[in-house]
UniProtKB/TrEMBL annotation:
The record marks 39 as: Deprotonates C-terminal active site Cys. Disulfide bonds join 45-48. GO terms for molecular function: protein-disulfide reductase activity. The keyword Transport applies. Gene3D superfamilies: Glutaredoxin. Keywords: Disulfide bond, Electron transport, Redox-active center, Transport. The lineage of its organism: Eukaryota, Fungi, Fungi incertae sedis, Mucoromycota, Mortierellomycotina. This is Thioredoxin. One of its GO terms (cellular component) is cytoplasm. InterPro entries: Thioredoxin (IPR005746), Thioredoxin-like_sf (IPR036249), Thioredoxin_domain (IPR013766).
Amino acid sequence: MSPARSFQSSARFLNGQVHDASDDTFQKLISVKETVIVDFHANWCRPCHMLDPIIRDAVKSTSGTTLVRVDVDECPKTAAKYSIASIPAVFALKNGDVAGKFVGALPKNAVKEFVESHATKA
């Protein structure tokens, strides 16, 4: 598993990339044309650790998607904006708007289906 890429100044990302967000960088990271899959998680959350490789693989193998990871302990403003009460919580954002979401660690096939169903079509 490769480490996540940190925030870059460009608002255009290649499909399948992973970015760790902060409260300061989140808005810029979701301002892209591709569907952004947002993974709200925490280091202490065991189901989050189980979901992490599954969601990374699903995004990496699905064109038209980018993954943005938000640690709820480090990004309280962003977590509050999306009313995160349970984690893991995964949102699909299109043009900054919520297009879909799920809460909890789902099986690999369900995560893949969620990502594919929300991917930006070329």
